[in-house]
Structure formats: structure tokens, C-alpha cells
Amino acid sequence: MQEVIRFGWPEGVTPQATEMRHLWTWLAIASLVVGVIVWGLTAWTVIFHRKRGEGELPRQFQYSLPVEIVSVVLPTIIVAAIFGYTVLVQNDVDKSIAKPDVKVDVTAFQWNWEFDYPENPTGKKISTLGTSETIPILVLPTDKSIEFTITSTDVIHSFFVPEFLFKRDVFPDPEKNDTDNTFVIDKIERQGAFVGRCAELCGSYHSVMNFEVRALSPDLYAKYLQKRTETNPVSGVPNTAGEALASLGCGELCSPTAVTTYPFKTERTHRSASQRSPS
């Protein structure tokens, strides 16, 4: 039954996603109810109130006060209810939290993603950068509030994870463009891998500008951050996201490469001010 009343929406993994799915469900139901009423009245009028003969007109209702009241008041009530419910959901989706558990900086560029953890428990810089050969994996904890700060280094992109049931356009220079470039999710409710996409047409390789969210339990997430600061004995540099995940030994959940999408060979380049090695 739950799958039926989702009306095609994916199953969300955050509280905000659940709220938006409920909004979508009730909007769809309200639309169907209004549609059935309109179709019914139309059919009733066509069948029972057609012109019967020469010079004979069907009964006229243009001066019927009850009909006019219903035709004005009922739509007003419906629109007001939809508007009020939408505002409530929107305010919760757009809310801010004074002290989120996790902060992530998201940088979009043609045609890939970079993820930074500016305030992580290790006190060291941790960053993940996608390339033409590597789908970037954004590792996040479950059951923790997460604040995203998003920006673009070139054109407008859009940060979209279907299971979050939410997307946010990513603008270059948010202050200059007068846009709010932060948003918060209360928590990710279960572990898993979820595809992320750019949902704004941004150029030649827009369709392959993907990333992956990997949600781990808080314990595994803490171990992942620690592994990111440790030096890889082979390369002699700190572990990449894939190497850190693989070292956790938790099966497919800790796959070193993306499992929801795959790279497509392009000539993508990183256009941010800081050029760093892929990780």
C-alpha cells in the first residue's frame, strides 16, 4: 500500500524526505478528488442537461447563489489548505540548526564534485575529489544532523540525491547572487549507497556528473575519518576515500568504488582555485 500511495516517488531516507513524500501523496489525492468531482459534474451536465428540443433550454444556474458560493468557497478552502501544508513542509525542509553534528562543503564544477569536511573530529583536512575515472563518494553518518554548504566554481549546477527527495541549485558566488547556499537534513535513517546527480543542465557532460552518498553507522563513520588521515603504505600519502572505505572491511557497504553509478570517460578538469590530487 505504501508503494501505491507514493505515486512513483522513491522511498526517502531522511525525515524531510518523508514529509515531502506525505505532501506529494496528499496533493495527488486532492488532485484526484477534485478531478473526479469535475469529471462527474461535466458528465452529469452533458447527459442530463442537454438541449431537449427546438427552443427549449436546459435549466439555468447563473444566478444560483448556492452554486456560486460553493464554486468560490470550496476552491478557496482547498487552495488555502494546500498552501498552508506546503508552507509547513517547506519551513521544515529549509530550517537551519545552530550546531549540526556534521558539516560538509560541496563544490560543483564542470563536470564533477569535491567534498570537504571542514570541522571533523580529527582536526585534519579531509577532502574527496572526483575525476573522469573516479566517481566521488560522499561518506556520511546515519542518525546525525548534517549541514551542507554548496557552491560552484563555474556555472549553475544542482545537488540532488533522489532518496533525499530534495535538490538545491548550486550557484557560483552565492553572496553575489543573493542565494542561501546552506541546508540541513535531520539525519539519514539507514545505511546504504545512494546515487547523487547534477539536476541542472550545465554543459556537455552534465548527464555523467554523478556522485554517490555512502551512509555508514556513526562508529564506522568515525573510523572512516580516522583512516582518511592515515598514510597509505604504498602511495605514501593519506588514504583516499576508496582506500579508507576498503580498510573498514564491511562488505559492499564499504566498497572502494561507487556501486550506484559509474564513470564515463570525459575531459573533465577541476576548475577550483586549489588544484589537488584526486582522492
Automatic annotation (TrEMBL):
Domain Cytochrome oxidase subunit II copper A binding: 99-227
Membrane topology, as annotated: Multi-pass membrane protein
Subcellular localization: Membrane
Keywords for the protein's UniProt record, in alphabetical order: Copper, Electron transport, Membrane, Metal-binding, Respiratory chain, Translocase, Transmembrane, Transmembrane helix, Transport
Enzyme class of the recorded protein, top EC level: translocase
PROSITE patterns, per database record: COX2, COX2_CUA
Transmembrane spans: 23-48, 69-88
Primary location group: membrane
Catalysed reaction equations from the record: 4 Fe(II)-[cytochrome c] + O2 + 8 H(+)(in) = 4 Fe(III)-[cytochrome c] + 2 H2O + 4 H(+)(out)
UniProt-listed Pfam families: COX2
EC number: 7.1.1.9
Function: Subunits I and II form the functional core of the enzyme complex. Electrons originating in cytochrome c are transferred via heme a and Cu(A) to the binuclear center formed by heme a3 and Cu(B).
Sequence similarity: Belongs to the cytochrome c oxidase subunit 2 family.
Stored NCBIfam families: CoxB (TIGR02866)
PANTHER family membership: CYTOCHROME C OXIDASE SUBUNIT 2, CYTOCHROME C OXIDASE, SUBUNIT II
UniProt name for this protein: cytochrome-c oxidase
Source species of the chain: Pseudonocardia eucalypti
